[in-house]
Structures are given as structure tokens and as C-alpha cells.
Specification:
The chain is of the alpha+beta class and 320 residues long. It has eleven helices and 13 strands. α8 links the parallel β10 and β11. The longest helix is centred in the last third of the chain and has 14 residues. The relative contact order is 0.10.
């Protein structure tokens, strides 16, 4: 079930009533206290667009959660995506076919020996203290990654990229990493200088094998799968739905999340030996359950792809 289909066929105010979210209309927004159980909101910081191109999308400026109507139902009722879809179908009489692998398929896929079974068990690691200066991440994206000023500013805002100027993560970009419903779980600390080793750090105890970067922002039926955060940010800047696996390895838990959410996967791992091995492994895991298309790179990584080159590949894969 796609967000656009839901919005076209439900009454948002009836949905809010069923979820017991009380608030007020202010312009094109519905304003309320955050309804999520893990946020004790003392003043209204939750807003949902009730009109316009962002209709049905919500954000809490207190806890940072954001998403669409499906995410809202998931968080408020503490259910997974499929159960949220079934609930909406029941409440509003939607006759929608929901893709779902059988229980046996999922059990066989996970083999009940992987990293766990539910996101709720994950340890939530707070962000380190961030500098009040917001020009450093923008300058990094311009000088090192080649974006212009407006693009860099948009990326920093969209992914809430900050900078630490003290402590263990001194002189590193801090990029929040969220779970499937938009709650911050951990972060990546990226070195500003290419000479700094290691180039990226994750806090001890970070459940990286149970997360996918940018997963809460993707609502399409297909998705690009890449290795690194900046690979994903590059593809995102070209207007395509994308998630990242935090390295050349797709865990079974990540695979299950992908299978449950998407009907088509476009793999674009790095063009080195590790990337090719990761591509082969992801193919073997995903292909029995979803449509898989390969965008094999001869060398380099997606972050190095120029827009024209990427769009040409995207058009080709669309018609394969």
C-alpha cells in the first residue's frame, strides 16, 4: 500500500480521531502534542500537513520523528508496516492487496539465528554534543563532495547533519541514523579530512546490521540499495528512493526489512571486489522474494556518479 493511495482514499481527521490524537488546525497544518509513547511532549510539537503536496506527512520537532500515514499508525499502535496496512484497510474499507512473504519464507530467510527479530529491542544511543556552528557540514559537502551551497544546505537540513568540535568525535560530521519509523537510534561520525583514520565511526553497541539508512523516508514500491551514507545521499539528491546498508554486507535482518517493504530492488554496490561480492550475496538472498535489478559499477562508487550518468542508468533499469 503506497502513501499516495492511502491519502487519496481516507479522511485524515477520522484517522487522527481513531488514533486519539487531539489538536487544532492552523493553516494547512494539524498541530498537537506528540502522540508517540516514547516522547513526553509538554507542549505541541507535532504537526501534520492536511492539504497541499505534503498532505498526510507528519513531523515532531521535539523528538525528531517524521513520516507518512503508515508510519503514524505504526508508531501510535506499536505495530509493523503490514499490520498498519491491514488496520488502515479495515478502518477505511480499502481493498488493497498487501504483499507479504509467508511466515515460512521469512523463517527460512532469517534461519532464526541472525541479529534479532524486532527493532524495539535496539539500544538507542544519543547524539554527542554538537557545535552550534552549522557552516562546517555545508562546507564539507561543497569542498569534499562537490555539491553547491543550496544543495549542501538542503542535505544538511534533510538528514540533520551536525558537527562535533569536542570530545571523542572531535572534528567529525555527525549523521543521525534512524529506525524504520523515524526514531534516532545511533549515528555515524565521519572524518572531515580524508587523511583521518578511521574515516567513519559508530558508537559501541550500535545495531548497524539491523538498520538501513534513510529507510523511514522511502515510501515507493522500489528502492536503490547502496553501501554508504554518502552514496545514498548522492542518489537522494538526484530524486530517487534509496537506502544504504553501512558497508558491503547485507544482513538477513536488513533483507527481511527490504522484502517486507519493497517490490523491486535496484542494487548499486561499489565497483570493487568487495562490492561485487556483496552484490552477488544480496542477489541470492533477495531474488526469491522481490524483483532484483543490478546496476553493476565497473569501478568507483555511487557518490562519484554524475547526474546525467546516473539518470541514464536509471532509465535503462526501469525498462529492463
Amino acid at each position: 500500500m503506497r502513501h499516495e493511495e492511502v491519502i487519496a482514499r481516507i479522511d485524515l481527521f477520522e484517522l487522527l480521531r481513531k488514533l486519539k490524537i487531539e489538536g487544532r488546525v492552523q493553516g494547512r497544518e494539524f498541530i498537537a502534542r506528540c502522540p508517540f509513547p516514547d516522547h513526553d511532549d509538554s507542549s505541541p510539537s507535532f504537526s501534520m500537513a492536511i492539504d497541499g503536496p505534503k498532505k498526510g506527512l507528519h513531523q515532531c520537532f521535539g523528538c525528531g520523528s517524521s513520516g507518512n500515514t503508515l508510519h503514524l499508525v505504526q508508531r501510535c499502535l506499536d505495530v509493523d508496516r503490514q499490520e498498519a496496512e491491514r488496520t488502515l484497510a479495515k478502518w477505511f474499507g480499502l481493498n488493497v492487496v498487501i504483499y507479504s512473504p509467508t511466515s515460512k519464507e521469512i523463517i527460512d530467510l532469517l534461519n532464526r539465528s541472525d541479529e534479532g527479530d524486532i527493532e524495539e529491542d535496539m539500544i538507542r544511543i544519543p547524539l554527542p554534543r554538537l557545535s552550534e556552528r552549522d557552516d562546517v557540514p555545508v562546507e564539507y559537502l561543497m569542498d569534499v563532495r562537490g555539491y553547491d551551497f543550496d544543495q549542501a544546505r538542503e542535505i544538511c537540513d534533510a538528514f540533520r547533519i551536525g558537527w562535533s568540535d569536542s570530545g571523542y568525535y572531535r572534528n567529525r560530521l555527525i549523521i543521525p541514523i534512524l529506525d524504520s519509523i523515524g526514531s534516532q537510534i545511533t549515528f555515524e561520525a565521519c572524518a572531515l579530512s580524508p587523511d583521518t583514520a578511521p574515516k567513519k565511526l559508530y558508537p559501541k553497541g550500535s545495531p548497524m546490521a539491523r538498520l538501513l539508512f534513510n529507510q523511514s523516508n522511502v515510501t515507493s514500491e522500489y528502492v536503490w540499495v547502496v553501501e554508504g551514507l554518502f552514496d545514498a545521499i548522492r542518489i537522494w539528491s538526484y530524486g530517487e528512493p534509496v537506502i544504504a546498508t553501512f558497508g558491503a554486507h547485507l544482513s538477513k535482518f536488513q533483507a527481511r526489512m527490504i522484502i517486507n517493504k519493497f517490490q523491486e530492488v535496484r542494487l548499486m554496490f561499489d565497483g570493487d571486489e568487495a562490492g561485487r561480492e556483496a552484490n552477488d550475496k544480496a542477489n541470492k538472498i533477495l531474488r526469491p522474494y522481490v524483483k532484483v535489478k543490478d546496476a553493476e559499477l565497473a569501478f568507483g562508487d555511487p557518490d562519484q556518479m554524475r547526474k546525467a550518468e546516473f539518470l541514464e542508468m536509471a532509465r535503462y533499469l526501469k525498462n529492463v
